[in-house]
Design a protein that fits this description.
- With about 260 residues, this protein is an all-beta fold.
- It has one domain.
- It contains no helices and 18 strands.
- The protein has a six-stranded antiparallel beta sheet with strand order 6-9-8-13-18-11, with no helix packed on it.
- It starts with a strand and ends with a strand.
Length: about 260
């Protein structure tokens, strides 16, 4: 279970940030998957996230048929910034794709709260023969030298070898636009989903209070006449306060994983 989009808000006002986090807990029975989402946006004065106005987009990718030895799925929680996960078994040493997606994050200034200048979560992957490790880079800073003391990310991994025919992967990097973007696959698709691989949110000019922050894509669709094409909507990172300050679009962006399921 990965994240396609999140928008966390205090509601109709802005505040400092002490902690911002997002986690997804899943369970399944037969072909049914259930997800429980916990999100936090809190300052040191007891101001909390507005649950009614905050939004999380989830995507579920699962193999519901017989075991597929050409695919590997993995979930790893709590990868601290600058570190790697434990080794993950892969479906061979020659891979067609191996991409980590964001499944959650936790960033905290500790006991105090501060303005926000920049917040980021980024995932990487390193292969070592038939195993690999996910790396995480997570940070939250203001303009006065304060840095988060807790910085971690949760991740999912999608990996497939060259014999895998039931899944295709495309990557969109450095996206920051409200315009629709189109990704073309090599074959017609029956469905597609989008996951966050990384995001960077940066206020323009200086640090500020936060009203709303988020990142990802708000939606996607297959082309009605050519299903090898996937249209991605609003691929961007964003932040705002109550004084009209917003993100620096030259220093804010998202990287997205587009997962296509071929027809047949």
């Amino acid at each position: 279970m990965g994240i396609s989009f999140f928008s966390l808000t205090y509601g109709n006002t802005d505040h400092h940030i002490k902690k911002v986090s997002l986690s997804v807990q899943t369970s399944w029975s037969n072909n049914t998957v259930q997800a429980s989402v916990t999100a936090q946006l809190v300052d040191a004065s007891g101001n909390l996230i507005d649950k009614a106005d905050s939004k999380i987009g989830l995507v579920c990718i699962a193999n519901t048929d017989s075991a597929d030895n050409n695919l590997a799925f993995a979930t790893v929680d709590g990868i601290m910034t600058g570190t790697q996960s434990a080794p993950i078994s892969l479906p061979g040493s020659s891979l067609k794709f191996a991409q980590p997606g964001i499944a959650g994050f936790a960033l905290s200034f500790g006991d105090n709260d501060h303005h926000l200048r920049q917040m980021l979560v980024s995932l990487g992957f390193a292969q070592h023969g038939t195993s690999g490790q996910i790396s995480a880079d997570a940070a939250m800073v203001d303009s006065s030298g304060h840095e988060a003391s807790t910085e971690s990310a949760d991740a999912v991994l999608l990996a497939g070898n060259y014999a895998e025919t039931g899944m295709e992967i495309a990557i969109l990097t450095n996206q920051q636009t409200t315009s629709a973007q189109q990704v073309t696959f090599s074959k017609p698709l029956s469905s597609a989903v989008v996951m966050l691989n990384s995001f960077t949110i940066t206020f323009g000019g200086d640090d500020h209070h936060v009203k709303t922050l988020g990142a990802g894509s708000t939606g996607w669709s297959l082309d009605s006449t050519d299903t090898s094409k996937v249209t991605i909507d609003n691929a961007r990172a964003f932040v705002s306060d109550n004084s009209g300050n917003t993100q620096d679009n030259n220093a804010s962006f998202v990287n997205l994983i587009v997962v296509g399921i071929p027809k047949g």
